[in-house]
Design brief:
By secondary structure, the protein is α/β, with parallel strands linked by helices. It is built from eleven helices and ten strands. The two termini are 21 Å apart. The relative contact order is 0.11.
């Protein structure tokens, strides 16, 4: 995995990948280059995890997670150029959603438009108390097109999603937590430690088990309960023959911490 991206900063500590949206002069707004950078990063993870077990995505600075699409870049775009750019954003969010390892969004500030969609596409969200969310696309004559209508609805319910998307009204981190988009709200100074803390806890667990459980939850939610149960047991049975399963049981009986190797 390369680390020399133009619009994001990528670093890793042990099994944890940290991804920072890095266009602070424009509130980390999503331009074509950032879409390409995120798309490349997460599509590469689908091919080679490099022993990574969890990812944390956040924004540079203390003002914005991501302010949405860069409207200065979009100003004067032809219809063809607009559609071509949006195809990159579509691939980007699909790559995020399809990432094999869990993604924790650490929302440090404004998450508007595409920024809110990136957060909603993550597996779960921790937010600073001052963070704000909004899907404001209808105020520009467009609509959410990077998963917003689907992921927000699944997180907070159809009626609430309609209210927020059709009005474009912003909402607070506390409201997002109450409605189910955000898992936990903390003070900004504590945000990264909270996000990295849960990431470390996840990374200590059996990596294959975590990936299988993530897929069972996510895909099962799109199925009937009976199909979901069948998917779950298929995911479960893939773990029975792993070294990690044997190590977990042995470590329990030996009263020690397991050493999982992802095998």
């Amino acid at each position: 995995m390369r680390a020399d991206f133009e619009t994001i900063v990528v670093s890793r500590t042990d099994h944890i990948l940290k991804v920072t949206l890095n266009r602070p002069k424009v509130s980390n707004a999503l331009n074509t280059r950032m879409g390409l950078d995120l798309m490349e990063l997460f599509e590469q993870l689908a091919l080679d995890l490099e022993d990574l077990r969890v990812a944390v995505i956040t924004g540079h600075g203390d003002k914005a997670f991501c302010a949405g699409g860069d409207l200065k870049e979009r100003n004067g775009m032809t219809d063809e150029a607009w559609r071509a750019q949006h195809l990159i954003f579509e691939r980007m969010v699909r790559a995020i959603m399809a990432c094999p390892i869990p993604i924790v969004a650490a929302v440090n500030g404004a998450a508007y438009g595409g920024g809110c969609e990136i957060a909603a596409a993550s597996d779960f969200v921790y937010a600073a108390s001052g963070a704000r969310f909004a899907l404001t696309e209808v105020t520009l004559g467009i609509m959410p097109g990077a998963g917003g209508t689907q992921n927000l609805s699944r997180a907070i319910g159809e009626r609430r999603a309609k209210e927020l998307i059709l009005s474009g009204v912003p909402f607070t981190a506390a409201e997002a937590e109450a409605w189910g988009l955000v898992n936990r709200v903390v003070e900004l100074a504590d945000l990264m430690e909270a996000a990295l803390g849960i990431a470390r806890r996840i990374a200590e667990n059996g990596p294959i088990a975590v990936r299988q459980a993530k897929q069972a939850i996510h895909r099962g939610m799109q199925m009937s309960v009976w199909d979901g149960l069948a998917f779950e047991i298929e995911a479960y049975n893939r773990l029975v023959g792993t070294e990690d399963r044997r190590e977990g049981v042995l470590a329990f009986n030996e009263r020690r911490k397991p050493v999982f190797r992802g095998r």
